[in-house]
Amino acid sequence: MPNIISLQTIKETLNAQIIVADSGLDDMIEHVYASDLMSDLLAFGKPNSILLTGLATKQAVISAHMAEFKGVVFVRGKLPKDNADKYARDKKIVLLSTQFDMYESCVRIYAAMSPGVLPTSATIEEQPPEHTLLSQDFHIQGRDFSNAGNVSTEIKEILKKIGIDSQISRRVAISTYEGELNVIMHANQGTARLIVSPTAIEVIIKDQGPGIPDIEMAMQEGFTTASEEMRAMGFGSGMGLPNINKNTDELRIESKINDGTTVYMKFNIEK
Amino acid sequence: MTVQELIKIMGLTPLSTFEDREVKGVFISDMVSDVMTAAKSGNLWLTIQTHKSIVSTANLADVSAVVITGGKKVPQETIDIASKYNIALLSSPLPTYTLAIKLHELGIEAE
After folding, report:
1. Closest approach of chain B CAs to the CA of A6, in angstroms?
2. ipTM of this complex
3. CA-to-CA distance for A126 and A247, rounded, in angstroms?
4. What's the number of domains chain A is made of?
5. pLDDT tops 70 at residue A92
């Protein structure tokens, strides 16, 4: 899409109410993504996008943050539930609410988009220092949807702090989030281990869950064993493991029925 | 404009058997609860949700057709149930946003 539009223009064209915009409305948006299924967003959403969704939950905002989106618009006048606004404020995501429905919102943003010049990238890419070496463990509480995304958010913050390239940390964040959700959906508890070396980032997610009977089948897009409740939250559409596969340089899954599953993910740091 | 006309103009792929009818407006959502609440009779429903529950939702909300966007693969079970209830189930390779813009350019407005 050659056109870009500012958050300010989007706010005006949608007559939107500002819920969170502490970081201002000057950022430019390059793509629009309209969906309520968060795994799809994590698989196909592009950075510098805005998310239009009817899913007014913290999970929607976390997904947008993982995918490096600039903002989220809740359609049909929906307002944030479960501290979605607090998360957006912490992560500097702009949160708007419009009375228009999704179709009308798409059409209005498109109409307001005028041909523009893509901003030149003024950011200097920071190289991770050679001596960076880090290993940290995180606890994942199963069945606790209210805290889903906490671990991947924390890992994303750490990678940002130590200067990992945003393209790589985005892939790590998305994969870790999907892995974290799998633990929450299926197991009572689990752990995530983050290991950073000068050449690669590794994330190992281990749970004491029911195990995966057929890993090959679980890797297929659309295959799911999630409950209706999980689907209602925009998850469990069978995109989790395929999405992890797409974002990792190396993926190994070991699983034993009634014992648990270990997902080993590796992301190479290219020089 | 009818569903059959729309299929021709937009290059949509019909997946189920159905009775042709008039398209009035567009509704976008992937949550069945939202469609039940807010979609209007005759709306064209765009979604990436492919679970079989979309068929009963389409039936109850009385939408004119369901378009699965982004070229998402639709389970055979969903297609079979759609054919059984004469619900038009169509497929488009375009992402939801892009298809919405094309429908707008065709002159289909929100109802």
Report:
1. 18
2. 0.86
3. 22
4. 2
5. yes
